[in-house]
Amino acid sequence: MLAETGVAAPPAIAVRNLIKRYPKSKTNAVDGVSFEVSRGEIFGLLGPNGAGKTTTIGVLTTAIVPTEGSAAIMEADVSRDPIGIKQRIAVVPQQSNLDRSLKVREILTFHAAYHGVPRKTREALADKLLEELGLGQRKNEKVNRYSGGMAQRLMIARALMHAPDVLFLDEPTNNLDPQSRLFLWERIRALNSNGLTILLTTHDMDEADRLCDRIAIMDHGKILVNDTPAQLKKMIPGGTSLEVRAFAPPSENGAASAKVKAALEATPGVAKVDELRDEASQNAEPGALTYRVYSESANTLIGSAAQAVFGAGAQVRDLSVKQPSLEEVFIFLTGRHLR
Amino acid sequence: MSDLTFPLADIHAVRTTNRAQLAIGAFLAILRRDLKVTGREFVPFLLQALMNPLFFLFIFGKVLPGMGLASGNYAELMLPGIVALTGMIAAMQGVTLPLVLDLGYAREIDDRLLSPLPVWWVALEKVIFGAMRGAVASSVIFPLGYLILGNGFAVRGDRIGTLIGMVILTGFVGSVIGLLMGTIIKPEHISLMFTLIFTPLLFTGCTYYPWGALQNIRWFQVLTLFNPLTYASEGLRYSMVPPVRGHDFPTLGLAWILLALCTSVLILFWVGRKTFYKRVVT
Fold first, then answer.
1. ipTM of this complex prediction, to 2 decimal places
2. What CATH number corresponds to the domain at position A241?
């Protein structure tokens, strides 16, 4: 697909200065978002709940009317040519919206019929897709008895029935077992290598890292960063961080915790210190303290960090240099507070 | 298994870019879907539509006149009302219930909303489909009435064209009311709908009594004019009740009936289309 259309092909998705303000809301749900997705790319839209991802996708799939700005898919404008958009896109939602009155195979053939795919083509394609997605055995059932994983695969099959140019996947592997997840990842890559442009949202950073060519992280209606996973990981100062585990006698814990944090922050070369609470990896020993220290070069800080902890009246339990994960980039950018 | 076939080229080669052609194709496919689903559930559909009229015809057309509690030709006057009511309710039910559930949480309609047609055509399809359901349910009342009423079954045959038109219009009135209700009512209020909307609609719609006979209760007679079902019942009475000694049975004027029914359909659809759009596009 890329080769056919050439390098100068216009983007698959182009969003410019998009603003959406819901009636009765004081803030913009999407607040001046611009990005482009090239043809044949897998693009990840990440962000905490309420960041504006769903609204952005809503605008791109014609379910939400933008307040300002523009969005286009394959050069069709969402406001001026919704029919043209609907012909070119397919949407796989988070929760099943499969037609429960139809049989599994009919769900596919009717979807294709809605999109004007000729009968012979749609019948053959339905059988083929059901087979390839491992649903061939149960194609004459209704979906009531389908498991979450099967419903998800069926929704993907349905999405492919009209050969869209752009596929929207909203948290595609949420709630799936590891087998289904791996299977879907494989399929998503295979589809992409056949030329399908994919925009996906996910909270699974590992998934985003594995699948996406490029990732945009959104928060409060704005895109904070938009780059390749590798580039994003370099965003954390120094590219590495130091995890510091310390111990202070429980009685003085409250004061000690703040003291240690202040001492670490005062250490030369430290950009930012986060205290990690209630980490699953941490044993529940009273008095245990864990910090993440971001720095230009975390490994040169080992000595001075230890001294800082000691100087604040606590003991050092463990120091380890961490390679950054996408999750850390995400937390670094969007903070730790709950939404 | 490793390579998922993705026949972009096959389908792109035959896909039209003509928006009107796309939209009409989608519209017809969606209508076909509804017909298929209803066809599969045809017996339950008939039972749902006909149980009520079955007993009504029996008790009010057969039992009560037999006891001398209703006059002999009451069945003739009531039958058109039953045809109107059955068609209207069947049309409403075909639109309202699926819409309330779909818009509330099932979202099964999303696949149709994402089809290449204007969003309001999805509402239009619902209305046309509902009207078809209503017309079928109305039509089945005729053989049912014949079976139950026996000799008491009397329908004039010289206004068959008007009769067909009335049956269709009644279906449309029912389905546009269904559209409006389906887009306004929340799933948790479905049972309330039956008491608050169905019951008054049913009893103020001149189904069990002719409009002209209400002249002694003037305020009620005026009130019934605000119910579209009144015009449907009267319109069917106009086309069905046989003349007595050369005199047509007095009903509301045909022109008024047609005007009221058509206006109701247009206004209710115009409003329902807006409420539908509001529910599916933010």
1. 0.85
2. 3.30.70.100
